[in-house]
Design brief:
The chain has 252 residues and is mainly beta. It is built from two helices and 13 strands; from the N terminus they run βββαββββββαββββ. The protein is elongated and about 85 Å long.
């Protein structure tokens, strides 16, 4: 739009999810049979404003989802203790689970001047994940009777199932840049210095508190590094041969 001053990129992903839980001998009294057909829509929108030939602002926003897997919906697991008398540990699926959903937005500024061999992009991003699926224990079921698959009745040692309980908050700043040293010395080959990195501001998993008067429990997500840095060199003779040498640091 407006002679490429404004670029808009809308999109939508549509997922058709269908499943049916079949009757299984020995599990009919344990699993709630369910049949479900879902249409899940996830819209996304990207916008870029080209303020100058070399300077642009960009932003993206959209949603996504992760559907519950089969064992979380319909699984049944039992194991037995070595105590006397023997007791049973039960893990049961939950047919009423919702899919996890997330909402993400990011915004940044980009400077791109190929004639000078310079590229720089700085982007802030934020993601909220809701309805995280977790395993939850029901201590009220401990020491109650349970008929196992062998037909015998045992006292329950532990009872677990799945629930939509948790949520996550993630945000950070991302840098992506390179400079073509070959351009500086008017070399007819390319030798780029590459730098990139991500600084996380928050990467927290929350557990909802069953007491509304108390705050939810927050812990750092174990699979996310607080700081990641990368860099290196890329050589290209602009004819037949190129290679890249990079290194990466990943924080705690």
């Amino acid at each position: 739009l407006f002679n490429k001053f404004l670029i808009i990129n809308p999109s939508i992903r549509t997922d058709f999810v269908s499943y049916e839980m079949s009757s299984t001998f020995g599990l009919d009294d344990k699993i709630s049979l369910k049949k479900e057909n879902k249409t899940i829509l996830n819209p996304n929108l990207g916008v870029q404003m080209n303020l100058k030939p070399s300077v642009s602002l960009h932003a993206n926003t959209g949603t996504s989802f992760r559907y519950a897997v089969a064992n979380q919906i319909a699984g049944y697991f039992e194991s037995f203790t070595t105590t006397n008398p023997t007791r049973v540990n039960v893990t049961l699926g939950n047919a009423e689970l919702n899919n996890e959903t997330s909402f993400t937005w990011d915004a940044g500024i980009r400077f791109n001047k190929p004639s000078r061999g310079l590229y720089l992009d700085l982007t802030y991003f934020k993601t909220n994940v809701n309805d995280r699926i977790i395993i939850t224990a029901d201590n009220a079921r401990i020491n109650t009777d349970w008929t196992a698959l062998d037909g015998n009745v045992y006292k329950i040692a532990s009872y677990r199932t799945y629930a939509n309980a948790n949520y996550s908050r993630i945000s950070g700043l991302e840098l992506d840049a390179h400079y073509d040293i070959g351009n500086l010395i008017n070399w007819k080959k390319s030798l780029k210095l590459i730098v990139n990195g991500t600084q996380m501001f928050e990467f927290d998993d929350y557990t909802k508190n069953t007491d509304p008067t108390k705050d939810d429990t927050k812990i750092k997500a174990l699979h996310v590094a607080d700081l990641s840095l990368g860099g290196g060199f890329e050589y290209d003779d602009l004819k037949k041969f190129s290679f890249r040498l990079t290194t990466r640091y990943t924080g705690n």
